[in-house]
Amino acid sequence: MTERYAKQERFTYKGKKFLISTVDLQVNHGFLIPLYYETMIFNETDSVYCKRYSTKDEAIKGHQDTLKSIKNGTLQLIDGCFEEVE
Question: What is the pLDDT of residues 14-59, one digit of tens each?
Fold first, then answer.
């Protein structure tokens, strides 16, 4: 059996604690393109961000890029969910 968690860590954003988790979905969740991996961010009760990827390498890079985007301000918590801003 393969390990489902590709990467997982906790971080704090504006005084609130979050978990970012990238996992192998084990089934294709795509329609036109295969999507086997997913990065999600959770607060204490809900998921507040989700993005899917085709490969494990893309997912790991996406996980790291998501954290970088939060740190540089291009991904911000808006109305309870992380959203890209310009």
Answer: 999 999 999 999 999 998 999 999 999 999 999 999 999 999 999 9
Q: For residues 33 and 4, give the distance between their C-alpha atoms in angstroms, rounded to a whole number.
A: 21
Candidates 77, 16, 24; CA nearest to 44 is: 16
**pTM of whole model > 0.85?**
yes
Cβ contact 51:21 at 8 Å: no
- The kind and range of the H/E element at 70 are helix 56-72
Say how far apart CA 19 and CA 44 lie, in whole Å. 8
DSSP line for 12-64? EETTEEEEEEEEE-SS---SSS---EEEEEE-SSSEEEEEEESSHHHHHHHHH
Domain count, the chain: 1
Q: Tell me which residue range forms the domain holding 33.
A: 5-84
